[in-house]
Amino acid sequence: MKKRRINKAIELLEQGQPVYYDSTSTFTYENGKAMASTWADYIRLDLEHGAFDMAGVDQFMRGLVDGGPTRSGHRTPAVIAELPFDGSSREVVVANAWIAKQLLARGVHGLILCHAESPEGVQALIESIRYPLQPSDPTGRLGIGLRGHGGEKNAANIWGVEQKEYMFLADPWPLNPEGELLIGVKMENRRAAERCVETASVPGLAFGEWGLGDMALSYGYAEKPSFPLPPELEEVRTKIWNACKEAGLYFLGIVTPETVTSLIDRGMRLCRAYDPKAAEIGRRYTNLKDYS
């Protein structure tokens, strides 16, 4: 039997299964303990708009551990933290990379970079979160990892592994097949859409999304349009989805009980399900049992 993954989302993706997530901006021990039994496969921490509270994230992660394990047998649900800075340039990412390192030191299992307009900025993020002991990527595009010693102690405790083991496991998957970090990008405005093919090709990424709210805003919509989308927004969504497919990235989008099966058939594998019934329907559709 294959060894169980630390990152539940990666384990499901390796099986060809969709993964479903819930989101929170309440970073307390109590909420972590409560969400340990979430219906979702992973939890997104809303730090783009929620308060930047590292002490709270620390307590939330400890609550997840104490409230676990999950019904699927994982120590915690996977946790993907939304970064509170934009991927608008390499300079912006380099200046704010300490935030990504702080979050990883709290024990999160992945990151998502919003407004990923710059492939150079995305590459800087990947380089900043890798330990220098990790092997180079096969394309030779990435520089040596820049993550330093010291943050592994707390993260290893959250993951339930030895510190040395953590340093080898805390690497982006699928770039590193043994890695347990899931890294994604939101290409959510016109500028990001223009360079989406380049951005999606950066080694170390696992998934991408387009972000209806911000993309619509960049096209002049004050409110999110409903589906079916206006033609220009459907066109840009398709463009970004195709860029992800061509680069081998998973595409993330919103699913409902009415749309989940058709979107799975279309290839969507990371799913924002505001209604847990969508996840229930999707799991039944893909013959996934006893995994919530």
Walk me through this protein's architecture.
The chain is an alpha/beta fold and 292 residues long. Helix 2 packs parallel to helix 3. The protein is globular and about 50 Å long. Strand 2, helix 3 and strand 3 form a beta-alpha-beta unit. It contains 13 helices and 8 strands. The chain has a single domain, classed as Alpha-Beta Barrel (TIM Barrel), CATH 3.20.20.60. An 8-stranded parallel barrel has the order 1-2-3-4-5-6-7-8, surrounded by 4 helices. Helices cover 41% and strands 14% of the residues.
Describe this structure in a few short sentences.
The protein is an alpha/beta fold and 292 residues long. Helices cover 41% and strands 14% of the residues.
What are the main properties of this structure?
TIM Barrel, alpha/beta, 8 strands, 8-stranded parallel beta barrel, 292 residues
Number of strands: 8
**Regions with pLDDT < 50 over 5+ consecutive residues?**
none
Please indicate the percent range of residues in DSSP E strands (runs of 2 or more).
Answer: 5-15%
Q: Which CATH C-level class is it?
A: Alpha Beta
Question: Can you tell me the number of structural domains?
Answer: 1
Q: What's the CATH H-level homologous superfamily?
A: Phosphoenolpyruvate-binding domains
Give, in spatial order, the strands making up the sheet with the most strands.
Answer: 1-2-3-4-5-6-7-8
What is this structure's SSE topology?
Layout: H1 8-14, E1 19-24, H2 29-35, E2 42-45, H3 54-67, E3 78-86, H4 90-105, E4 110-114, H5 119-129, H6 152-159, H7 163-169, E5 182-186, H8 190-194, H9 196-200, E6 207-209, H10 212-218, H11 231-247, E7 250-255, H12 260-266, E8 270-273, H13 276-285
